[in-house]
Amino acid sequence: MDGANIESNYFRVNLFNGVCIAYIDCNIDISHEMKPKGTVVLIHGFPETSWAFRKVVPPIANAGYRVIAPDYRGAGESSKPSGGFTKAIMAADIIALLDHLDIDERVHVIGHDIGGIIAFVLASRWPERVISACLSECLLPGSNTYTNQLAENPVEYFHFNFHCVDNLPEALIIGREKLYIDYFINRRCYRIGAFPPDVITRYAHALSQPGALRCALDLYRSLDKDAEDTREWVSQHGKCQVPCMVLSGEHSSYGQHAERMALEVVDKPYLTSTIVKGSGHFIPEENSSGFSEKNGSGWSRRR
Questions:
Q1: What is the pLDDT of residues 11-51, one digit of tens each?
Q2: Is the dihedral of CA 241, 44, 59, 256 positive or negative?
Q3: Where are the beta strands (DSSP E) in the chain?
Q4: Which of 18, 84, 127, 209 has the fewest other C-beta atoms within 10 Å?
């Protein structure tokens, strides 16, 4: 498996809930007589698509795992529904996709940014389906640390407020998707060369599709409900007891508070935390080998 094969393994399916999900599905090469090790689900963040994992999929597949990387609802080539952007609903989409693919074994889930919130919800609400979760560079709504970080660092997290304003983001971004994504990514990454012009253009094209920007903004407009849902879930069911790894980029501010935040919603014995060297916020694209290696070492301990 190499990067050139990823697009030939890019599919789309209509789920029972009416949502169409596009996804990468790369299986191990059976010609190598390698014993399958399990399934890994990769969930991207904003403003990316499953293409964010183009350098991550091959080494994971070559290590013996089936890799599923969806464009979550509203992103990439997935459908652009009018609602359903709470992370609980989006996590249910992932479960529906796994059911469609007849994957009933427990899976490793890796979520980055917004995808990390979805990965956490999957692990906490469907522990019978998740063997481990990686929460990469994500804030966790429902924790006090999340609330404090937004209040104390309004410039760092400007988009959490800007994206929630009615109508104004659409008016300012439509027609300027490439400019906005270029600015958004480059102010948060360490390795600028990780995002050549063709990658920025690809993400801008995805965001300019009809309905895509509205869906992207609704990811943030649903965060208050996500926070409410998490607080209620933890109150009724307790903290998550699926092994979770918090992953932070060496040059990102997330690492300063990531573990403390996760401990509010994940039981301490089930939580580990680590740093990926030579990366800012966008670890899968800035240091794909470090991203893959950190996750792979965690899986080997749990087999």
A1: 999 998 899 999 999 986 655 667 789 999 999 999 999 99
A2: negative
A3: 10-14, 20-26, 38-43, 65-70, 107-112, 130-136, 244-249, 271-276
A4: 18
* Overall pTM surpassing 0.90 (yes/no): yes
Phi first, then psi: give them for residue 110, nearest 5 degrees: -120, 120
Return the closest-CA partner of residue 254 out of 151, 166, 136, 119: 136
Give the CB-side neighbour count of residue 249, counting CA atoms within 13 A.
Answer: 23
Length of the chain: 303
Kindly report, residue by residue over 249-274, the tens digit of the pLDDT.
Answer: 999 999 999 999 999 999 999 999 99
Burial (CB count <10 Å: 0-12, 13-18, 19+), residue 150: middle
CA dist 173 to 49, 83, 155, 200, Å? Answer: 18, 20, 18, 15
- Residues pairing with 183 in the sheet: none
